[in-house]
Amino acid sequence: MPRTGLTPLRVVEEAEHLADEVGLGNVTLMALALSLGVRPPSLYKHIDGMDALQRQISIRARNELADVLARAAVGKAGAQALQAMSTAWREWAKQHPGRYAATVTAPAVDDAEHTAASNAAVRVALDVLAGFGLAGDDAIDAVRALRSTVHGFITLEQGGGFGLPVDIDRSFDRMVASLASTLTSWAHS
Q1: Residue 161's CATH number
Q2: What is the pLDDT of residues 108-161, one digit of tens each?
Q3: Does 23 map to a domain?
Q4: How many of the other CB atoms lie within 10 Å of CB of 188?
Q5: Which of 8, 22, 36, 148 falls 20 to 30 Å from 16 in CA-CA distance?
Q6: How far apart are the C-alpha atoms of 37 and 3, rounded to whole Å?
């Protein structure tokens, strides 16, 4: 009989919190069971194993990030929308490093739910980039450049890669402003 109060959602939520505390790669069924106060075999009443748990964390994280990006960009256009979205992205990644790690890899092509969650954030980015006059392949190229730029900054910052005594926020803001400047002429290149 499943433990009272323990549900599949509760298990995934605890795994998310654990991922943010110890890192996604350090989430194990043993650690999760300890955190929930149950024995590891009890988890199988609520999840189908570690791969299924990682998938659920990724889907939920992607949807949450897409919501954060959309709320940040709403009512803004062009460079202002890009700055707001990028800043919100970075802040969310700081607050949820384990969940953020779950958003990095592409979902399996035959996993419609996971793909839809992944596409949600891409749609927000495409909407923001439309403010720069970008569509089609130009927009996809720009989404890839945006993601590479912001993700690279986030990854370096989380890894302690910025040791020079210059304000990191200033560097981030300048980077995004430079990208906005580049995107202004992207469609014409």
Answers
A1: 1.10.357.10
A2: 999 999 999 999 999 999 999 999 999 999 999 999 999 999 999 999 999 999
A3: no
A4: 7
A5: 148
A6: 10
d(CA 47, CA 8): 6
Residue 5 lies in a domain: no
- pLDDT, tens digit (0-9, with 9 covering 90-100), for 6-44: 999 999 999 999 999 999 999 999 999 999 999 999 999
Distance between CA atoms of 142 and 181, rounded to whole angstroms?
A: 12
Q: Which residues contact 47 (CB under 8 A, 6 or more apart)?
A: 8, 11, 12, 53, 56
Q: In total, how many domains does the chain have?
A: 1
Specify whether the CB–CB gap between 35 and 18 falls below 8 A.
yes
Flag whether 121 is in a domain. Answer: yes
State how far the Cα of 118 lies from the Cα of 70, in Å rounded to an integer. 14
Tokens (6 digits) for 68: 């954060």
| Percent of the chain surpassing pLDDT 70 | 97
Residue 132 included in any domain: yes
Q: Which domain holds residue 136?
A: 48-188
Length reported for the chain: 189
Joined tokens for residue 134:
């970008």
